[in-house]
Amino acid sequence: MEKYIMPLIFALILGYAVTPAVKLIALKIGAIDRPDPRKVHKGLMPRMGGLAVYLAFTAAVLLSPARAYPVVWGLLAGATIIVALGILDDTRGLSPRMKLLGQILAAYVVTYFGIEVLYITNPLTGKMWMLGMLSVPLTLFWIVAVTNAVNLIDGLDGLAGGVSSIAALTMAAVAWTQWGSSGIAGMPDMVMLSLILVAATLGFLKHNFHPAKIFLGDTGSMFLGFSLAVMSIMSLTKSATAVSVIIPLVILGIPLLDTFFAIIRRFHKHQPIFQPDREHLHHQLMAMGLSHKQTVLVIYGLSAFLGINAVVLNLISSDQALVLLIVLAVVAIYSANRLGVLGGTSRAGFRTIKNLKRHKPSKM
To answer: Which residues of this UniProt protein bind Mg(2+) (predicted)?
Structure first.
């Protein structure tokens, strides 16, 4: 038991202890986040804090039994490329095209170590579809999509780190239940990877929760998204259950839905898909009157709710799972529309318009 507990304690302590040093490095090399109309913070803030999470995670993994698996070295190799890419973006700024190319490279390195989505199980029939030549392209798409989704929700102190921690903890719970029923070899060590990521991130969150002393930066948000995407392939997709293809989508529901709704919103408004805006979930919740900290905690709660449902999906029958998924989808779309995340006017927006009309000055 000690060989599993000690890496977690080490990751937690190192994530907390190394962050102040990373903050000094960020200030020295110019990894500074400057305020703009789209951002919530008002002053200069050091970023690149994800380097601390990466260092704590990597060191703890190398001390854990999981290091014996070649796929784990694939995860670390790809994550190293992602962190290097993030440091360049946090210090110099990279174009979206360069970032995308770097993400694809990191994802491809992972496939070289045998980390691929080999099959998809039809959630309606339970039939397995072998992907064949589509395996690598689909793997690349999944990893890049999740990497960017987590990167996009990193808009408030502690938001991306907390949501990622909840997602990783849920992955560990689901993987453990799958191992108990299927006996997949090595699953406990894959569970360990998720828990180490949770511990390393929680250590950093002490410095990153509102009011933050340092930001994750693209270094951290891309590292977290990349790691979650790869670990979901290493563990969750190994199950042949009918809902195995859906569970990672539910676990990562907050970042994936926020990104998906942003694409729909910008397409509907004839805006470039990569153009930033202030209509993400956290923006809309703050527009309703929630404070910075309250908004983050509400999104934590939503992430935990989806996490619980992901665990339930893994334990119930396929028919019951299908009903639950339909309910979750309807609630998500309805809530997003009411909040204005889909591009309409939120309830907070309607109140603002009503107040403006009420206080409109009379004509002279």
So the answer is: 151, 218
CB-based burial label for 45 (10 Å; 0-12, 13-18, 19+): buried
Q: Dihedral of CA 255/259/260/262: which sign?
A: positive
Name every residue whose Cβ is closer than 8 Å to that of residue 188 and which is 6 or more positions away in sequence: 4, 176, 179
CB 216 within 8 A of CB 50: yes
Q: For residue 356, name the pLDDT band (cuts at 50, 70, 90).
A: very low
One-letter amino acid at 27 equals: L
Measured CA to CA in angstroms, residue 111 lies from 56, 108, 233 at distances of: 24, 5, 11
Q: What is the pLDDT of residues 143-192, one digit of tens each?
A: 999 999 999 898 889 999 999 999 999 999 988 887 655 445 456 777 89
Q: Which token pair is 189?
A: 């060590």
Among the residue ranges 84-88, 242-246, 302-306, 316-320, the one predicted with the least confidence is: 242-246
The confidence score (pLDDT) of residue 1 equals 64
Q: Are 72 and 235 in contact (CB under 8 A)?
A: no
Quote the CA–CA distance of 355 and 80 in Å, as a whole number.
51
The answer to the question of whether 36 is labelled as a binding residue is no
**What tokens were used for 272?**
């470039």
Q: Give CA separation, 343 vs 84, 261, 278, 301, in Å.
A: 35, 8, 10, 23
> Is 237:116 a contact under the CB 8 Å cutoff?
no
Determine the Cα–Cα distance for residues 108 and 318; give it in Å rounded to an integer.
33
pTM: 0.88
Measured between alpha carbons, how far is 173 from 311 in angstroms, rounded to an integer? 7
Q: Is 186 helix (H, G, I), strand (E, B) or coil?
A: coil
Annotated ligand binding at 218? The verdict is yes
The Cα 210–Cα 207 span in angstroms is: 8
Task: Look up residue 64 and give its two tokens.
Answer: 């854990």
Alpha carbon distance 51, 26 (integer Å): 10
Q: DSSP H helical segments within the chain, as ranges? A: 2-29, 50-63, 70-91, 96-112, 135-152, 159-182, 187-208, 217-234, 247-251, 253-268, 281-287, 292-315, 318-339, 347-358
Domain spans in the chain, listed from the N-terminal domain onward? 2-358
